[in-house]
Write a structure and sequence with these properties.
By secondary structure, this protein is of the alpha+beta class. It has helices spanning 3-16, 74-80; strands spanning 24-26, 38-51, 54-68, 85-93, 96-104. Strands 1-2-3-5-4 form a five-stranded mixed beta sheet. Strand 2 (38-51) and strand 3 (54-68) form a beta hairpin. The protein is elongated and about 50 Å long.
Length: 105
């Protein structure tokens, strides 16, 4: 499956975790006014395995950030349950809670 299709599939999954009318943002530019709660995600890393010096398996890693005013929101719990997802850290900025995950997809 092409990388674009995989990313679009991930986008659909993440959007499905949000309340109706809320958005997931892929690598948003600085001038985008986000509505909360939301999910922001971006490509972060790639893992490649080799056999006989040729790549045979390649996985992209995304940094997924759930941003909400509620520190105990359900969105965070849903993201955390995705396969190959690891909680990385939590921080607060501008009275918003940010939960950051590494997700291989």
């Amino acid at each position: 499956m092409a990388q674009r299709q995989r990313r679009e599939e991930l986008h659909e999954i993440l959007t499905g975790f949000l309340p109706v009318g809320k958005k997931a943002y892929f690598q948003p530019p600085e001038n985008v006014k986000m509505e909360f709660p939301c999910i922001v995600y971006e490509r972060d890393f790639a893992s490649t395995q080799f056999a006989n010096n040729f790549p045979y398996r390649h996985h992209l890693r995304y940094q997924v950030t759930v941003i909400s005013r509620d520190p105990d929101n359900e969105i965070r719990d849903k993201v955390e349950q995705l396969p190959m997802c690891l909680f990385k850290r939590h921080f607060t900025a501008d009275d918003l809670h940010h939960d950051v995950f590494d997700l291989y997809f």
